[in-house]
Design goal:
Keywords: Membrane, Transmembrane, Transmembrane helix
Structural class: mainly alpha
Radius of gyration: 47 Å
Order of helices and strands: HH
């Protein structure tokens, strides 16, 4: 084979390699484009659910706020009821002290004095024994 033939063979081989590389590059690019389109399609499908998710999140947030406000109101009612009960207990003890001060059987100056611990039994619902 002559030098010219070798040159022609080398050029043909280089051309075949270049065409193969170009075809592989083109095929890779086509696959990348397909993958990008698929990912974009998936992203668009996913994005369609975002507003609905945002609405659900806002609704849940509003429900939580309503529950928080109701809990605050319930706490306020509980505190008011506790204050009323404490006041009723104080009024009750005040009445018992007044009764004990009038009762000659009760020594209100004693260290172990407790309101309502008179000798007539169940004056305050405790059924305490009389003190001497």
């Amino acid at each position: 084979m002559s030098t010219t033939a070798w040159i022609i063979v080398a050029v043909v081989i280089v051309l075949v390699i270049a065409v193969a590389a170009w075809a592989a590059s083109r095929q890779r690019r086509r696959k990348q484009v397909e993958q990008a389109e698929e990912l974009s399609h998936e992203a668009r499908e996913h994005a369609s659910g975002i507003p609905e998710s945002q609405v659900r999140a806002k609704e849940a947030e509003a429900e939580a706020e309503r529950a928080r406000l109701e809990a605050e109101r319930a706490q306020q009612r509980a505190q008011e009821a506790q204050v009323a009960a404490t006041q009723q207990q104080a009024v009750h003890e005040d009445r018992l002290r007044t009764a004990d001060q009038v009762d000659p059987r009760v020594d209100t100056s004693s260290e172990d004095y407790h309101p309502g611990a008179s000798g007539d039994g169940d004056v305050d619902g405790t059924d305490r024994a009389p003190r001497s």
